[in-house]
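Illustration 12: Maff2 family protein.
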Amino acid sequence: MPSKSNYQKSINKFGRRKNWLKKSVLNKIMAFFTNSVTALKTVVTAIGAGVAVWGIINLLEGYGNDNRATRF
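Figure caption equivalent — predicted structure in token form:
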């Protein structure tokens, strides 16, 4: 019985290749999504920190206006 080539072994009974995406391609796609999620985490953290600093500044500005003697 003749042995099958690697290409013939990768064909299923419907004539399609079993592993049409190689692991290297899948790894590149997953690396892209992993890097994207990491970048989005950084952006969201930076926006949150900026809003927090802005809120603290607004709170501190309000404390200077509570002296009734300075009002007319």
